[in-house]
Each structure stands twice: as structure tokens, then as C-alpha cells.
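Hi W.,

Here's what went into the run:
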Amino acid sequence: MYDNFKFSITFLRNGYRRGIIATPHGIIETPAFIFCGTKASVKGISPWQLAETGTSIILSNTYHLFAHPGSEHIKNRGGLHKFMGWNGPMLTDSGGFQIFSLGHGSVADEIKGRRCGSSTLLSIDEDGAVFKSYWDGGKQLLTPEKSMQAQRDLGADLVVAFDECTPFHSDKKYTEQSMERSHRWEKRSLEEFARCDDGTQAIYGIVQGGVHADLRKRSAEFVSEHPFFATAIGGTLGSNKTQMMEVVEMAMNGLDKSRPIHLLGIGGICDIFQGIALGIDTFDCVHPTRIARHGGALVKAKYRDSSQREHINLKRSQYKNDDSPLEPDCDCPSCKIFSRAYLHYLLKANELLALQAIAVHNIRFMNRLMEHIRSSMENGTLNEIKEIWC
RNA sequence: GGAGGGGUGGCCGAGCGGUCAAUGGCAGCAGACUGUAAAUCUGCCGACGAAAGUCUACGUAAGUUCAAAUCUUACCCCCUCCA
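Here's what came out:
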């Protein structure tokens, strides 16, 4: 297995590391950020814009494409790469996160105890999870085998074992049972993956275990003991950032460090620096592209406003007369030709260009951040550049 | 000239005797967003006040009533139809 894949660590110091993941569609220099193109599209952004802004890898979601238009439909169109026009490395998430998100709403809602009214997760049992399709209302069963078959149809380079993303509010007993079931699901995922392996894909195992150190350790050991190509850290990471990094550290303790390690769903700037310090290789998050659509532009520390956020909210009236670019030292197309005042106006005028222009900037921002992190590792300036970006 | 309809907070637009500082929507001002059911969601949005509350408000003026955005009368504007 994994003959066409390779992970090489090219630099290692004090636990943080630089590396290269080789896939049939190209290489990913790590640490890297993976942009979310959930429904076979990074919302509002074309593949050529992704390429122009230095993106090496994107992610799509099995659950969403399974619900619509169907993984077989995409297989018949030549696979996901061809279908969406992205020829670089790609990962598909298994749909495990949707057991969480379609049952509890957003991560923030769940942690803060705000339950959203209607859930489309109908039930979970040993076999898998039953959803009410948000597309046509029909009942859908997603199992480890189905997720793997769908991911095989989609044809991403990197695929992910099917797990249950356990909610933060679950007690330890449920978290443990859920973790053990996830382990059984991951084993089934691996078996189904191996059964159809044709050398074009590599699979990630997922560490679960909630916020409990003993569970995280057990889960990390489980994943490391099984022949996954790489590891992803998933599940709830706690209710605040301090706890989040504690949980990541718990998971890291039992992991096989020779494999690529991905931190699922995390993409704050400071979070990335902290994750890298613990040895994380890749991150993915909807945050950069989602906040862009809500008028939020990521900017380095010196370009921020008084709000202490990692982005500026261009809908704020303070930007109405701001003729400067989002960031004077950014090389993205948006910064080269648009002012904050213009983007503010576009947002107020409800013009779609605003959403795209800010997303292009945020994507370039994240890629520049990762480039800077990689280049600063070997000359030992990681701590200095953190001041610039955090 | 005759007949009818209408004038409500920045705009559109409900309400048609008390529970109305007045439903909604838009605009405005903020906030949230971390393996995307998200170009979404939440809050504020007459003035003063931390709040209780006080004041000023439904074209203008006068009236009926314990009580009027809501009823009556006059006036001023707008729209439609007829001459």
C-alpha cells in the first residue's frame, strides 16, 4: 500500500518539523494549510485562483457529495479532480464530522450550549449513521464501507476513515463508547480501503477521545498500530484555546511521528503556530474562506483594529474612507488593486466581487503564512515571525 | 368641476378606540463564525437615561371620549377614474 505516496521529514527541531507529502497529483510542502471546498468548490473561488494564490491542496466532503450529486455521478464524470478542474493534491473528509455538525450545529453553538432547532442526524448505531438528506429529504445511511466506496469514487489522493466526531457536551462514558465505536469504524474503513486499493489513494486514521488524556492516548495508539498512511486529530478539542492545545498534546503523545499528522478543523493564526510547535504538519479550516464571505479579511498584527481579532471586519463604517489596501505588503491581486474603502463599498452594495476578492486575499494570506513558517524553521526565527502574524 | 382612494418612525409597509414608541422588510450600527445545511446567524435601531422611567411622535388644526395612529369636522398635499 501507499507505493505512490511518501512522507519525508526534511527538517526537525524541538518537535516542530518541515516535510513533504508526495501524492499522485503533486507534492504538499508541510506545514501546510488545506482549504475547504466542501461541495466540490472552494466557495466563490476558481481552481486557477487557488493556484495563483499558491494553494497546494484542497479538501472536499464525502457526506455532501454523497447526498448530492452522488459519488457515482462524479465517478462517471471522470472523478472529482476532473469534475471540479483541480489537478493538485486533494483530500476528502469521510463525513464523520457531519454526524456532529448536522446533529448539533456549529462548533461554537455546541460548545456554548446553543442547540439548533432541527437536526438531520436521525440515528447512530454500530453499522453507521442515518441522516435525513438536506437535499431531497430522503433517508441516507452512511457506514464506514459506504464512505470508503464514495471516497474511492471521488478519487481524492488522501481519504479519511469514517468516524464519529463526538460532541463536547458528551460525558466521558459516551465519549469512550463513541471512541471505541470510531475505532471499529476506522478498522472497517481500513479493511474496505485495502480491499479496493489501486495505489491511487492513501488513508488517514483519526484520533478521538474528547478532552480526556487517557482516551486520547489510547486512541492515538490505536491509530498508530494500524496501517494508516497518516493521522488526523479529530473530535472535540475542548471549550477554549488552552484546552484545545492540551487536547492536541494528549493526542500527540501516543502517535507514530513518522506519519503526517493533520489537525482537523483548526485554522486560527495563533492556533496554527501552537499546533506547529506540537508537531502538526497540516491544518484545514473553513474559517479563512467563511469569514471572507462575511466581510472579514485576515491581516497581520500591525494592520488590525482595536478588536483584537485576527481579521478586520470590512463592513465596519471605519473602513468607508480607508484608501489603503487590506495589507500594503501583500502580493495578492486584491491587495494590488483594491482599497479597503472599495471592498467596504462592495460589501455594503452586496456585490459578489467583495466576497471573492476578500477570499482571494485570505487564501493568499494563509499560504503566505505557511510559506513564512516553513522558511523560518530552518533559520530558527519561528518565534520572531509569530509576533508578526499573531 | 364630480367620484373614489390615500398621507404611519431614514425608506417601504402593517395596524384602524385602550394590551402602540407602534408587526414586518430594507437601510444603518455592532457582534459571532475553527474536519461549511453559512454570500449565514444574532443583537441594537425616536430622544434623554445605567435602569426604572420621562418626553416627543402616525399630514395640519380643532373636536368626541376616562382613553385616539385608529372616530368626527375643517384644511393642506398625493394618486386613480369621470367631465
